[in-house]
Amino acid sequence: MLTLIITILSLIFQFFLPWWIIAPIAFSFCFWMARSGKQAFSSAFIAIFLLWIIMGLIHTIPNENILANRVGSMLKLPATSLNWLIVLLLSGIMGGLAAGISGLTGFLFKETIKKN
3-state SS string over 20-50? Predict the structure, then answer.
């Protein structure tokens, strides 16, 4: 449920706000709903990883991966036709890590408040 909420809200807000809106969304909903640190990190990571992978596919497939392949060549990846896939996975992992760490921070902040 937490994964679904983070995914839907991030999808909606990323249409008109910067990419880093994933951090406050993951922080606030993991603060409110997460029961453990593992759940907070994994829910936020999976939500944004899948969202960014799917959105990346939606944007890169119609243009035959031209931009993603160029980004791959700028990253000094080997000259193959699969650079777009590596770029897609890297962006999903980076977004997932940003959201996962933010979600974990939200959960740990809640635990700190409870103790005091």
Answer: HHHHHHHHHHHHHHCCCHHHHHHHHHHHHHH
Amino acid letter for position 104: L
Q: What's this model's pTM, rounded to 2 decimal places?
A: 0.91
- Supply angle C-alpha 7, 63, 94, rounded to 5: 35
Tokens coding 63: 């243009």
pLDDT in tens, 9-64: 999 999 999 999 999 999 999 999 999 999 999 999 999 999 999 999 999 989 88
Closest CA to 29 of 94, 93, 91, 109: 109
**Closest CA relative to residue 27, chosen from 95, 92, 111, 107:** 107
The sign of the CA dihedral 24, 75, 57, 47 is: negative
CB 27 within 8 A of CB 105: yes
